[in-house]
Every structure is written in structure tokens, then in C-alpha cells.
Amino acid sequence: MKTVWITGGGSGIGKALALLMVAHGYKVYISGRTLEKLQQVGAGTHPVVCDITKTDEVKDALDQIGHVDIAVLNAGGYEPGAVKETSLDSFRKIMEINYFGAVTCVLALLERQVKHIAVVGSVAGYRGLPNAAGYGPSKAALISFVESLRTELHGTDTKVQLVSPGFVKSPLTDQNDFDMPYIIEPEEAADEIYKGLQTDQFEIAFPKPFVRRLKFVRLLPYKYYFPLIKKVTGS
Ligand SMILES: NC(=O)c1ccc[n+]([C@@H]2O[C@H](COP(=O)([O-])OP(=O)(O)OC[C@H]3O[C@@H](n4cnc5c(N)ncnc54)[C@H](OP(=O)(O)O)[C@@H]3O)[C@@H](O)[C@H]2O)c1
After folding, report:
1. Up-side HSE of residue 232: CA atoms within 13 Å toward CB?
2. Secondary-structure class of domain 3-233 per CATH
């Protein structure tokens, strides 16, 4: 039986993926900071409390779990808002969870020679967006980190993947007060991630129609990019 460790497995995408992987016969360990949330997932998942911003807790969690076949580094935080309404503490907190938290996990996994690491970024990291100056840069940094890791480990027996979701209904996106194009349910996201994990492709990006548009937008020069963003978001 293969073992998977999913951080942020107590809700949203991580929870849906945990349940799907249990159904596919994996031994599934889920982590987060809140034990009750992890326990409520049930269905044979194994809760391991761990704050990914604390190196000791990450190492303790991995010691408890033992051998890991696949790690899905999915834990993340989000605090939307305009730059001038966002505190420095908030910028730091999101970077600490989304970027340094994931890096902490990667370093601990490499130390234990885990052979398959999938890191959940976001299409929000592709380019700068209004009201996302805390979240976007944390995911942009993470994308760049995972790309570096892929360049360094390609050709070895360690597989590195980047998961790039569009909008997925979850407690995280429940904070948004705008219409989210192409939003999908966490179960659909889990299905995409599960299928992607079985492949050798680097990026697991979904939903496809949204991603195709964003990949095009990513290439636009600023003189076209900013007017387009203003038209779509009003900012
Ligand atoms: N939903 C979307 O539209 C969307 C789109 C693109 C990317 N993503 C990414 O997908 C991932 C999952 O998000 P989601 O939408 O499923 O949101 P979610 O339901 O809020 O899940 C995030 C999970 O991360 C855990 N977490 C937060 N900080 C943590 C920390 N310091 N240590 C350990 N666990 C921590 C939370 O549990 P505790 O609070 O109990 O620790 C929570 O269960 C995130 O990385 C997010 O950025 C989401």
C-alpha cells in the first residue's frame, strides 16, 4: 500500500484529495494545525497535527508517518485586500505559510529521500492581480522555487510536480466577494490532481479552459495586460 502525505488535508482541496486517495487504496496522512478538522475528515485518513511554518513540527510529523511515497504540499493561506489596506504582518504571514512553509516541507522531504513531491501553487501566481498582492507573490515565489527544484532533480529518481489550480470552492475562496470564473468543486480539483500525479507532466493545471486563457494572458506585454485586467476586474 502506497503512503501519501497531504498538508492542509483538513478542508477544501486537500480533504477532497485525501478522500479520493483513500478510495484508490492509498494510506493517507493528513496534516493541518487543527486536530478536530483533521479528525472530521474520517474515512480511514490518519491525522497528524503539524504547522508547516514550524520546522520541528514538520520533522516530527514525518517521523510519525515514516516512509512517504508521495507528498502533496497543499497547505496554504489567503488574505485578500488592496495593498494599502493590508498590513505588513499580513504580507509576512502569507509568505511564511505559502512559501516558507512549503520550502520547509520540501527540505525535510528531500532529507528523507521522498521520491515524489507535488507542490500546490496557484494560477494567481502567474501575474500580478488586484487585491492579491499578499497571496499572488507568495505563489509566484513558490512557482519559481518548484521550477528550480525541477531543473535540479530532473533525471534523478525524484519526481517534482507543480499543481496550479484555478478557482476551487473552499473555505479559502469563500472569502471572495466577486464572481469567480470557471470555479469548480473540490472533488473535481482532487480528480485532476489525482490523475496528474499518475503522469510525468511537470504542471497539473486546471480547469483547462481557464488555464489556456491565463497562459495566453501571462505572455501579454504590459501595454495589453493592464487594460485587459482593468476590463475584466475593474481595477
Ligand atoms: N481554492 C482555490 O480556488 C485555490 C486556487 C489555487 C490554489 N489554491 C491552493 O490550494 C491549497 C488548498 O486551498 P483550499 O482552497 O483547499 O483552502 P482551505 O480549505 O482553506 O485549505 C487550506 C488548508 O491549509 C491548512 N493550513 C493553513 N495554514 C497552515 C499551516 N501553517 N500549517 C499547516 N496547515 C495549514 C488549513 O488548515 P488549518 O487552518 O487547520 O491549519 C486548511 O485545511 C492552498 O495552497 C491554496 O493556496 C486554492
Report:
1. 14
2. alpha beta
Q: Do residues 186 and 170 lie in contact, with contact meaning Cβ atoms separated by under 8 Å?
A: yes
Q: Catalytic one among 26, 78, 135, 194?
A: 135
Provide the grid cell at 35. 486536530
User: Which residue has the CA at smallest separation from atom 1 of ligand 1?
Assistant: 168
**Closest C-alpha to ligand 1, atom 47:** 76
pLDDT tens-digit profile, the chain (235 residues): 999 999 999 999 999 999 999 999 999 999 999 999 999 999 999 999 999 999 999 999 999 999 999 999 999 999 999 999 999 999 999 999 999 999 999 999 999 999 999 999 999 999 999 999 999 999 999 999 999 999 999 999 999 999 999 999 999 999 998 999 999 999 999 999 999 999 999 999 999 999 999 999 999 999 999 999 999 998 8
Handedness of CA 80, 83, 87, 92 (dihedral sign): positive
| Domain spans, the chain | 3-233
Q: Could you confirm whether 135 is annotated as catalytic?
A: yes
Q: Does ligand 1 lie within 6 Å of residue 181's CB atom?
A: no
